[in-house]
Amino acid sequence: MKDKAIGILDENRLMALATIRADGWPQATMVGYANEDILLYFVISRQSQKFANIARDDRVSLVVGRDFHDPRSIKALSIAARASEVTDPKQQQRAVKLLLERHPGLRKLEAPSPGHSAVMRANPEIITILDYSKGFGHADVLTVGPGGLTDMTPARDDDWGFGLASRPVS
Amino acid sequence: MKDKAIGILDRNRIMAISTVRPDGWPQTTIVGYANDGLVVYFVIFRGSQKFANIAADNRVSIAVGAEPPDIRLAQAVYAGAIASEVSEPGEREQAWRVLVRRHPNLAGAPQPDWAQAALMRAECQHISIVDYSLGLGHTDALHSIAEKGA
Of A59, A158, A162, which has the smallest distance from its Cβ to B47's Cβ? Predict the structure, then answer.
């Protein structure tokens, strides 16, 4: 199941990332990422609201997925993670290398300056895997414990009351 | 600027929506939506965490934007919004029609069992428009647009 989560991370490169503002309002933005196993790397501006939010509260939520033709093909991840800045120079280099491999378009741009941009990582703690090929609304939940061990809680099916009525998008 | 935000909302149909759990942790999921101006409609399961989250705190955040072929073409809308259930049957019928137009796979299918699913609205209030064609990282902010009627 962990491999499945990594597979979905590997197939995508854009996530919606939510942080919490000081007033308690969530803030969601789209951020490009690269992953190594289940660890996600991304770069954000030090001037951004989300950088300030993470500095105050490291709890973030992110989602990875894409639009679909057939609802039964939906595969997505919703992840609760703790985010922090990567300050180790070696890990920073590794993160930037992975980001450039996943986002070749970024090579056209100037490299981010450390004074302006922060290299960040998100460590997942709870991963919900949506796989509607197993039934509309099917979700498996992985809990990531210390040492990287994963426990799976029972799958659930939220079919939204659609039952089997969901049909491919024409 | 308001028209630009609506234009981006009009051209998409899935969004990330973030709610806040009672323990203060954000929770983000992807849902299909359709918008009427700056009001966004979507359907969620009553048993879902996000339905409970919204009942406890109606402040949500949405992000809409497809991956561009070139980062310099990126356009997205981020909005802080107030979410609530559309429970008045007439308004729900109208909102459902808006959703079906944007999501043709819903046409002809029976409506969800409203005892299990809830049709929700989110009224966008604090809006950021990302438009990198105007410069990498270019963002315009529209605050409390609904209140000001801007």
Answer: A158
